[in-house]
Design goal:
This protein is α+β, with helices and mostly antiparallel strands and 75 residues long. Helices cover 39% and strands 25% of the residues. The chain is globular.
Length: 75
């Protein structure tokens, strides 16, 4: 699982990132952008799924700002 928050912080430098434990043992990543937008997503159990989730959050934030997605984010 991609729970190393330094990876998330490096990928989303303008955001406040935290995690929250769920009753079923899984975790939720909480991303708060500088403009106040908050995204909550369940972290997948595998590394590949977590990397895809990180790219998806980057894409969601770019689209919310009206920016065109970059090639790295689209994958």
């Amino acid at each position: 699982m991609l729970t190393d928050m330094s990876v998330w912080r490096a990928a989303l430098p303008d955001c406040n990132i935290s995690t929250q434990e769920r009753p079923d043992g899984s975790a939720v990543v909480i991303v708060k952008s500088a403009d106040g937008k908050e995204l909550r997503r369940v972290l997948p159990g595998d590394s590949k799924g977590a990397h895809q989730l990180l790219r998806r959050i980057q894409l969601d934030l770019m689209l919310a700002k009206g920016q065109a997605p970059t090639r790295e984010v689209i994958g």
